[in-house]
Amino acid sequence: MDVRLVKQCVKYFVFVFTFFFTGHAAASYIEAAIGNAVVNDATSVYYNPSGLAFLANPQLIASWGETFNYSRFSGTTNQVLTSYRQTGSALSRQEYPFPSIYFATPVTDRVTVGVSGLYTFLGKEDNGTSSLLRYIGTSSAASLYDISPSFSVKLLDSLFVGAGADFSFAYISLDQMSGFPTAGIPDSLSQSSGYGRGTSGHIGAMWHPILGTILGIVYHSPASVTLDGHSTFSGPSSNPDTAVVYTNAFNVHIVAPPSVVVSLNQYVNPRWSFMGTVERMQWGTIRNLVLKNVAFKSGNTPVILPQVVQPFFLHNTWRFSLGTNYAITDKWAVRGAYSYDQDPGNPAWQVVSGNNIILSVGTTIKMSKQCKFDFSYGYTMYQERNINVTQRANQVFGTTSGGRNTVQGKIIVDFV
After folding, report:
1. Exposure winner among 111, 152, 161, 297, fewest CB in 10 A?
2. Structural domain that includes position 206
3. Which helix (H) or strand (E) holds 4?
4. Could you give the residue ranges of the DSSP H alpha helices within 311-405?
């Protein structure tokens, strides 16, 4: 077997993770799109802990959201070594929930504490085992769930500060097809998955200089997580006894990038306010991906690859949001927002989506002094992006497009 085929097999496996990691990941975009560094309820435990100082009573918020994601690639793939070309389109449709919960309570006139649990990263991609992208990225899933205890201190009546720890629980699943049809090597499948934990933190401040104006800033540190699990290869083999190989020593290290968010909330009158947010996310801090002990194949022989290193070449990104909130009555408020969110992926190295345009609407209904309901809807359009991957074993030429629909409901309980 040509040793070049062995090297290409290694490259195919790591491509799937890069394809997913910079693709259509969804988190709580509805909340994130509307002034998420200026928050005055229990969700501030994660979004900006200094906002806990606004709470006069204990508060519990339980939320459930659903995301419906679709993405399409249209174009051509080419195996450089064997010149195997495929032309057409690949469509991926996914649906997944993202529940969250927040609780906060004042402990003194100036100190408030709280805890939250929510998905800060959540996404799936499934191109199927027969699509033209099956050698680029077959299917993958990843999640990062954070439990965050936080506190706030009211330094002055107009200045609040807060901080919190983030205990992250991560999961990853990678399925990768490989094959060389024109060389007579049929398709085979490598499946790897792992769980891991990591820690990080966040710190924020809010300033209330004059009546009707609130300025907030929050920094989230990078979350470093090491995942351990298993890897299985199954497929045709020159030796039937080794058609399936397995290892429970699979390992991968991932880093969620740090970010800085600045938000301004300006009231026009007691019922009407505008919100603006700017976020800088440091995706460029992610240099490469290292996978260890991967069950794959060398030619037609299954093996355990001890280590594979893959560069990312990601870009730092900006997110800009502008929204408004209007209280129609004392018990009913509506809101809307427009956001522009850059994609960090590099289309010269990965099959990635375009920049995101996000439209969000929502409403809050006060049922009683103790209970409120909140409902939100967000539509995200992935701008069309040209893909021109030429420096990999599998070349990709074409365009990507797609979108995402997100619905979310909350119940807000004040213990008064």
Report:
1. 111
2. 3-414
3. helix 3-21
4. none
* Whole-number Å distance between alpha carbons of 399 and 347: 10
Q: Please check whether residue 325 is in contact with residue 272, taking contact to mean a CB–CB distance below 8 angstroms.
A: yes
d(CA 265, CA 277): 9
Structure tokens at 370: 């103790």
3-state secondary structure labels for all residues of 215-251? EEEEEECCEEEEEEEEEEEECCCCCHHHCEEEEEEEE
Give the ranges where 309-378 is alpha helix by DSSP (H).
none
Residue 290 CA to residue 53 CA, distance in Å, equals 42
Dihedral sign from CA coordinates of 36, 42, 48, 50: positive
End-to-end Cα distance, the chain: 74
Which of 315, 335, 314, 317 lies closest to 278 in space, CA to CA? 317
Note the pLDDT tens digit of each residue in 302-345.
888 898 887 778 889 999 999 999 999 999 999 999 999 999 88
pLDDT at 15 over 60: no
d(CA 77, CA 113): 53
What's the domain count of the chain? 1
| 29 vs 394, higher pLDDT | 394
Looking up residue 410, the CATH number of its domain turns out to be 2.40.160.60
Q: Which helix (H) or strand (E) holds 3?
A: helix 3-21
The secondary structure element, H or E, covering residue 31 is: helix 29-32
Single out the residue of 361, 374, 360 nearest to residue 331, CA to CA: 374
**pLDDT tens digits along 251-269:** 998 888 899 999 999 999 9
Q: Residue 223 is which amino acid?
A: A
